[in-house]
Structures are given as structure tokens and as C-alpha cells.
Amino acid sequence: MGRAAMIMAPHMSDTQLDLAFMADLPSPPAPARPARKPSRARKVLAGAAGTAAALPATDAEAHARALEAHPDYRILRRLQPRQQWPDAEPGTDIRCVLVLDTETTGLDPAKDRIMELAVLRVDVDAASGQPVGAVQVYDGLEDPGSPIPKEVQDITGITSAMVRGQALDEARIAALLQGVDLVVAHNAGFDRPFVEARLPLFKDCAWACSVHDVPWKAHGRRSAKLESLAQDLGWFYDAHRAEMDCHALLAVLTAPLAGGRALAGVLERASHPSYRLLATHAPYEAKDRLKARGYRWSTEDKVWSIQLPDSTALEAEFAWLKDNAYQQRAAVVQFERLPATVRYSGRPGVLMHHQL
Question: Which of 21, 59, 160, 308 could be a cystine partner for 313, CB 3.0 to 4.6 Å?
């Protein structure tokens, strides 16, 4: 309701009043506000702004530091790809890691195709997770053989014209894959099936997932999304292009954490198998307890299952199942042993049985 209507509303009768004449009336002046004493925060900001204004226009970092000095502001800096690290010390246990990312025409590896693949090959100190030496980079586009959906072009910036006639350099990729100990992708369960369908030489590789193989919440991170992890470290970058996503992932995995660099933990976890435990023939009345525990129902296999990181967790889960799902009744359950060469591929591991 406008100002004129608000003024007249208390005096309105059943007959609608003609208020058109009020359109030409001048609006009353806004009440004057008393001058406020500058707050401490405003004084700090004014001082920071004055400092920044006095600096050369090209010194963006100095401007950023001036603003960053105020507690109400956080600064995000553009992530700068690093392609050279200090050389390894003698006697260092070195592992060769391939950081990988894809951009695809869709989400289904059975019908969608890779349109960009990037990899970083880097040697890593297995104990500390610190890269050493030079980083080798490959980034290639590929024509998927069909138009790229508009929504995918909007997300990635990759157009059908950009990939027309392009093909991945298979020889270069194969050379970079030689001697690699581990392939790391952010959401490997997505990337691995696409990559193996296009380049079968990846099938025999050990893979790790930087989403699921790192306890990000335990490290105080609010999300496992790569952009969020980078922002928590004070970086932003141009996401959804494969090479830049690889550089961002390497930076995130090698940033110092309270418990050590995340990449060291990824390497350690990949050195032993994980497990998928199936609550075979679990009683129907146990479904709510299984769901609350983190089990997922497979409509295809008609079974509840849970992913477990190691044999210690597997043994603990056997005990939990017996007490909480089978109520101490005798039961035989199945579990899959998943070495890193199978993990995140969608292929089954070694199926085994256990008597509870």
C-alpha cells in the first residue's frame, strides 16, 4: 500500500475515494539523521583504504593485505598452478601419482563421452605427501561425436566448435601413465568408468578418490566439494576445466593440515584393500537400524550394504551386525574385498563369506 493510500485509509468510506489528485503533491522531506560517530571498524577500514590508495595501482597483493588486516574480511586469491617443487632428499620413499580430471558430455559413461581429459604426473614423498621435482602436464580435448548439450557448454565453456576434429593424444597419455603408482581423481567413481571406457590401459591402475578417501569433516572442512576446499584455503580458480581442476586438486591435497597432508593419507589408504559388506538376508525389521548406520539398499541386488575402509572396520562391523541386525542369530554374510585396482571402477571385487 502506497503512502497516499496509507494516509487516507483510516477515513475511507464504503465509496471508493478518488486519490488521483494526490499524485502531484510533493513528498515530505526525509527526516534528518543525526551524525554518527565513526565506529572502530569504520576507522580501521578507512585506514586500510587510505593505505591501499597510497600504494601503486599494480600492487594488488598489497591492497589485499591491507583489507585482509581487518577481521571482518577474508581474501580469496587466484590459485596459481605450481609445476616445480623442491627436489627430493636422498633416501625419500617416492611414489608416482597421476592427478586426473575429465569433462564429459553427461553423467552416464554408457552413452556420454569424454570431451576433455587432463592429468598431472608428480612424484610424491609418501611419508609427508609433499610433491617433489617437476610436474608434468597434459590437457587434451576430444570430439565426442555428437553435439555438446547446451547446459554442459554453459558449465564448462567447452563448445562443439572447440572440440571439432580434436582427439586425445593416446601415446602421450600412455607415456605419462608408465610407472604410476596411483591415479587420484576427485570423485573417482565418476571419472574412472569414463576413462576406462575410452582408454582401457587405465583398468590395471590403482585408483583413489579424494572425496571419499579423505576425512574432510575431521579436518574441519565444511564440504568435500573441490571449490569449497580451495576456498577454505583462501583460493579461487576457474572451475570445470579439466587442467585447472587438476591443479586445484593437487594444491588442496598437498596443503598442510593438522594431521599431515591429505595426499599422504590417500597414498596410505590405497596400499590396502577396502571392503563392501553385504547384510545378506538381514531381517526386515532391521532395515531402519541398517539405514541409520549408513547401509544403502540395492534394488538390483536386494541387499543392504556398506563401504568400509579397512579390515579393522570390517571386523567391527561384523560384531555390530550380529548384535543389531541379526539379534545374535547365526548368519552368513557376504563381503567384497576391493583392492585399489578395482575400487571405484564399478567392477566387483573378490566375493567372500563370513560366519557371524
Answer: 308
Quick one: 101 and 177 in the same domain? yes
CA dist., res. 256 & res. 165, Å (int): 42
Q: How confident is the model at residue 58 (pLDDT cuts 50, 70, 90)?
A: low
Q: How far apart are CA 136 and CA 176, in angstroms?
A: 8
CB-CB contact of 138 with 119 (8 Å): yes
Q: Are 129 and 265 in contact (CB under 8 A)?
A: yes
Local confidence band at 117 (pLDDT 50, 70, 90 cut-offs): very high
What is 95-118 written as a DSSP string?
Answer: EEEEEEEEEESSS-TTT--EEEEE
**Cell representation of residue 53:** 590508495
331, 281 contact by CB (below 8 A)? yes
Give the pLDDT band of residue 140 (cuts 50, 70, 90).
very high
- Domain of residue 167, CATH code: 3.30.420.10
Q: How many helices and strands, by DSSP H and E, does the chain display? A: 12, 12
238 pLDDT above the threshold of 80: yes
pLDDT digits (tens, 9 = 90+) for 308-317: 999 999 999 9
Higher pLDDT, 238 or 7: 238
Closest residue by Cα to residue 275 from 316, 314, 301, 331: 314
Q: Decide: 251 and 79 in contact? Cβ < 8 Å.
A: yes
What the block records as the C-alpha cell of 330 is 547365526
> 3-state SS of 144-161?
CCCCCCHHHHHHHCCCHH
**CA 104 remoteness from chain centre:** 16
Statement to judge: residues 315 and 290 lie in one domain:
yes
Average pLDDT, the chain: 87
Closest CA to 104 of 174, 169, 155, 165: 155
Which grid coordinates belong to 19? 486519490
Question: What distance in Å separates the CA atoms of residue 221 and residue 261, rounded to the nearest whole number?
Answer: 14
